[in-house]
Amino acid sequence: MKETNVENLISLSNDLRWQIGDEFHDNLAEGIYADAAEIVKGSVRNKKEKGHLRFDAKLDQILTSKYLGFPLMFLILAVVLWLTIVGANYPSAMLGSLLLDTVHPFLKDLGVTVGLPVWLNGFLIDGVYLAVAWVIAVMLPPMAIFFPLFTLLEDFGYLPRVAFNLDNLFKRAGAHGKQALTMSMGFGCNAAGVVATRIIDSPRERLIAIITNNFSLCNGRWPTQILIATIFVGAVVPKAWSGLVSLAAVIGIAVLGMGFMFFTSWALSKTVLKGEVSTFSLELPPYRPPRFWKTIYTSLIDRTLIVLWRAIVFAAPAGAVIWLISNVHLGDLSIAAWSIDFMNPFGYLLGLNGVILLAYIVAIPANEIVIPTVLMLTVLVTGIGGGAGAGVMFELDSANATGDILKAGGWTLLTAVNLMLFSLLHNPCSTTIYTIYKETKSLKWTAVASILPVIMGFVVTFLVAQVWRLLS
Amino acid sequence: MEAAPKSACETCPQYNAEGLKKLGVNLNEADFVVALAGNPNTGKSTVFNALTGLKQHTGNWPGKTVTRAEGAFQYNDQKYKLVDLPGTYSLLSTSEDEEVARNFILFGRPSVTIIVADASRLERNLNLVLQVLEITDKAVLCLNLMDEAERNDIEVDTRTLARDLGIPVVATSARYLRGIPELIQTVSDLANGRIVCKPHRIKNIPPNIEKAVTKLSNEIQAVYPDIPNSRWLAFRLLEGDNHVIELLRKGEFVK
């Protein structure tokens, strides 16, 4: 009975639709606008004479100008990065010495005192605890600086201007202009960037944004870039220039990432994700003075602590795995040594080595632990002193000492450059992969988003290695 | 961080914030459900935070809120669950965020809908306001960002506006918690039926279309006497919105 009624309604609506013609949508929209105009006429008064430019408009003329827009964007990015890099040094060193040099031996002794078996003590303290401590020492300070700075820019209203500047490039790449916003979020955390793609209406363009978000260097990868650039790239120029050159190298990698993002978006939209670019309107909101302390507070609570907690949750089991593969032996060699030997030839082809490849496999849960894992495994393989024993992650107090270990492990400038490239171009961390799956609900696209960057990483590092060796 | 809502005229009962308790995410046994709708970047999340005491992240760019955030507050012993919807310019197209907002106002049957609008850009914001008023008749317009409007020398006569729209209008600057006590009081009055709205219905429609809408809307009322938004449903059917047709077949509108 009800069902026939519903069908009657639907057929009645179909008949009526024929009668009123196909302009219903426009008519309705016009009607709404006409009503709105009438209402506003009766209740809103604008006392200010129109015609002269307000502060907002003047600022927009500069920030979104044809010539100054891009340089200013890179300048702002450089300043934010510089503040992050320089500012994070000291608290990182302090946290490192506290958690690694003071608390770690204390816990180890405590384990002995309460009578933990040696293997369990090693597993818990050298494996799980050290991984967590490293992540906190390395990640917390840069995050506590980067996120608030980013949030201040966001509250001020700069992000939509970035989107405005980049819109034309995105259009040419066949992607949605709002991808600029999700890309910017990705510079903080790729998982957050992937969630933010919900602002893109078209499923095709949203997929492109999700798949290419990984090309935004995330928070877990900045420290790797900065450390390696400082040790190897900064060292090839006179000391006075090394800071500036390392910073330029890091920004270069970030910009290269944006290049890959545009290229991949373009390639996807020309092949598997073909379609029209959808138009959209993006409001340039008024600039609003950020509420400084409130912003600092919320970005610490909302972003920094949540991201840090996530990293800790993933780092703990990874630390356990690292300790296990270095201490469980198959025949003469530990599993780690065995895998490194196995992967070395392939690593050589890519201008990397087995240690780096193994580190990237172990560090799938969290990018932050790549460098400590690399150090630990290098010490294991080369057998040089300075480390703290098999499967023990550690941080060296100075970049020089880190460099010495890596050089002893056979590292060259090529290894460093390719590690920076591979850090940019490899699979997303497991949190991001899981988020991609939750957002796309598709195993296929999750697989594409996870594997595509690794393949690109292999290709790019392989090419760089071959050309490099040919030239030198 | 924030001071509790306070104002000069503390003798006035509507300023008395003692009745207000921010409950954060404690959503148990809400007496009323309140939806928070509005254009992107009008400060919905800021209003949400001011009411619930939560620290939902806010940002100065349109589209910041992509999921529904929920929180709660208690006022005069009644509990209100507050749902922060994604910002939309309209409810007429079919993008994902618009659907989240539209479906919630339709099927979530909120006791009250707070429509947040940017006071400096009222005309553009009214597009959504008028559409929401076609769907629900228990709504309050939260005229937010009044501080910016004042800075730009824009004056809004809230009483005329309220009369034209047929719903209460409250001027606020949520960032500075101005107007929040009045907003809470108005929401409470609406929820308890102390204020009855007579919402504006879209008028400037060509006569032949208006006739078709009325006819269809009357038929819908004949089939579903309880439906509060038959006119809006008629709009959607005339537009040929497959999503709504499907929902109608499934009987979603009569729950």
From TrEMBL, chain A:
**Record-annotated Ferrous iron transport protein B C-terminal domain positions:** 250-298
Which InterPro entries did the record assign? Fe2_transport_prot_B_C, FeoB_GTPase, Gate_dom
Identification of the protein by name: Iron transporter FeoB
| The keyword Disulfide bond belongs to this UniProt entry's keyword annotation | no
The UniProt record lists the Nucleoside transporter/FeoB GTPase Gate domain at: 138-228, 308-441
Give the molecular function GO annotations.
Answer: ferrous iron transmembrane transporter activity
Signal peptide location: none
Q: Coiled-coil segments, which residues?
A: none
| Regions that span the bilayer | 67-90, 128-153, 180-200, 220-237, 244-268, 307-325, 346-363, 369-393, 405-425, 445-468
Cellular component per GO, a single term: plasma membrane
Which PANTHER family does the entry link to?
FERROUS IRON TRANSPORT PROTEIN B (PTHR43185:SF2)
Domain of life of the native organism? Bacteria
Which Pfam family is an annotated match for this chain, by its short name?
Gate
Write the record's keywords in alphabetical order, separated by commas. Answer: Membrane, Transmembrane, Transmembrane helix
Automatic annotation (TrEMBL), chain B:
Q: Name one GO cellular component term.
A: plasma membrane
Q: Which InterPro entries match?
A: FeoB_Cyto, FeoB_GTPase, G_FEOB_dom, GTP-bd, P-loop_NTPase
- Residue ranges annotated as transmembrane are none
Q: What is this protein called?
A: Iron transporter FeoB
Specify the superkingdom: Bacteria
Q: Which PROSITE patterns match?
A: G_FEOB
Q: Name one GO molecular function term.
A: ferrous iron transmembrane transporter activity
What residue stretches are annotated with the FeoB-type G domain?
Answer: 31-193
Question: Which CDD domains does the record associate with it?
Answer: FeoB
